[in-house]
Design a protein that fits this description.
Blueprint lengths: L1 E6 L9 E7 L6 E2 L4 E6 L4 E5 L4 E6 L6 E3 L3 E7 L61 H10 L17 H9 L3 H4 L19 H16 L2 E9 L1 H18 L5 H12 L7 E4 L4 E4 L5 E3 L1 E3 L2 E3 L2 E2 L7 H16 L13 E5 L18 E15 L2 E15 L5 H16 L8
Parallel strand pairs: 12-16, 16-17
Antiparallel strand pairs: 1-8, 2-4, 2-7, 3-6, 4-5, 6-8, 9-18, 10-11, 12-15, 13-14, 17-18
């Protein structure tokens, strides 16, 4: 038997160090070639680290949240044969031998396709699995809250996700077996509670926090809110869905908003820009790369619809849907999560009346979409019911003047209220 030491690989792009986000194995686990061992976080994305060998994990080289240099020891695996470490050199390998509980983060980007990890030994083939009382099952915060609301002990649920991760579907399967109340009594609605849960802010959640803090500290934010009558564009959307929905796919409002941004930016190129505040350089782009803010279990992702200026409504709709699915499933690539020139953010029916979105630096504008509500409005002296929606947008005042921002949003408003103008060149 020998020892095979895996070192932190060179991710590329001149990266000298990365953050260790999550372990998918622990000391004592048997691993196979191409099994994902850990996820590491760069400045832009999450990257899987697969195993190049078969063997048994004998030591872990770091803890989740630890920043590790490229080339440092990541993990040691006992293998058949000589391994890649000479016997005399083994004592010099500095690794931590204590198993580390996996934190509540999920992989965001896979740098290359890898084989699914081998099932964890603790996971049985039924809907219920008996883990040790102190063993923390792998699950996202949303799944943990869902299980708590249902009165389910998460350690009793079989996880079918990567590395035995418990998914929402696993909770549904558990309930379907009628076992949720067999092992965990549901507390009375007014029972006193003293439980606490500490969640380490690492990985993607840490990156999101850093980016939000950085954006609010560096940019001179100002917001502008305008209400828009979307009755006509909603009628057009319903008509197109009725006529072409079966063959081309259903349209949401988002493709129309993307088209409105593309057309309005022709007149306001200073808003389709990026600002390098260190070099003091503004780059105005001819291409419109629209970031679509997307909520995933691990936090906010912003996949990018590239060259929106060259896409029709259905092309935009398909790309938005594809990117949103990839982001939510943690399959979006590094390129798909970077390079936007302006961002569109919407919470749909939860959009509220007004919001103050935070800029996605180095962009200088973000357009926030609030919910659509029916309200009585005065049109040509008559009170009529119209569908109204607010746009709550933020701009970087270092680059965008208030007058330009207001005129830009008014241009978007005019295009959506007279939707035929979206397609007039």
């Amino acid at each position: 038997m020998g020892t095979h030491v895996i070192k932190m690989p060179d991710i590329g792009e001149g990266i000298a160090e990365v953050e260790l986000s999550v372990w998918h194995v622990k000391v004592g686990d048997m691993v196979v070639e191409d099994q994902v061992l850990a996820d590491v976080m760069t400045d832009k994305a999450m990257v899987d680290i697969p195993s190049p060998v078969h063997g048994k994990v004998i030591a872990l080289g770091g803890q989740p949240g630890e920043v590790m240099a490229v080339g440092s020891v990541l993990i040691s695996i006992e293998v058949e044969g000589a391994g890649n470490v000479k016997e005399s050199a083994q004592p010099a390998v500095a690794v931590k031998e204590a198993p580390v509980a996996a934190p509540e983060v999920e992989p965001v980007v896979q740098s290359k396709p890898v084989a699914a990890p081998a099932p964890r030994p603790a996971v049985c083939q039924g809907p219920m699995v008996a883990r040790e009382a102190d063993e923390r099952p792998l699950a996202s915060p949303a799944v943990r809250k869902h299980a708590l609301d249902l009165g389910i002990q998460l350690r009793l649920v079989r996880g079918t996700g990567p590395a035995g991760r418990v998914l929402h579907e696993d909770l549904d399967a558990y309930l379907a077996q009628g076992q949720s109340n067999a092992s965990a009594p549901v507390a009375a609605a007014y029972a006193q509670r003293n439980d606490e849960e500490q969640i380490q802010v690492i990985g993607m959640r840490r990156k999101i926090a850093q980016r939000m803090q950085d954006a609010t500290q560096r940019a001179a934010h100002f917001s502008y809110v305008e209400e828009i009558d979307v009755t006509a564009v909603e009628e057009l959307r319903a008509h197109l869905n009725e006529k072409h929905g079966a063959t081309r796919g259903k349209l949401t409002l988002l493709p129309f908003l993307v088209r409105a941004l593309v057309v309005a930016l022709r007149e306001f190129p200073q808003i389709n820009a990026r600002y390098d505040d260190e070099a003091q350089v503004i780059t105005r782009l001819g291409a419109v790369h629209v970031g679509i803010a997307t909520q995933a279990d691990i936090g906010l992702m912003v996949p990018v619809v590239r060259h929106a200026e060259a896409r029709n409504l259905w092309d935009s709709a398909q790309e938005i849907s594809r990117l949103a699915t990839a982001a939510r499933n943690g399959k979006a690539s590094r390129d798909e999560l970077s390079g936007s020139s302006i961002t569109l953010t919407s919470l749909g029916a939860l959009g509220g009346i007004v919001s103050t979105p935070v800029l996605n630096l180095p962009e200088v504008a973000i357009v926030g979409v609030n919910k659509i509500v029916e309200r009585p409005m005065v049109v040509k002296g008559q009170i009529v019911i119209r569908k109204m929606m607010n746009l709550s947008s933020s701009f970087d005042h270092r680059v965008v003047d208030g007058m330009d921002a207001a005129q830009f949003i008014q241009a978007v408003r005019g295009l959506l209220e007279q939707p035929a103008t979206l397609f007039v060149d």
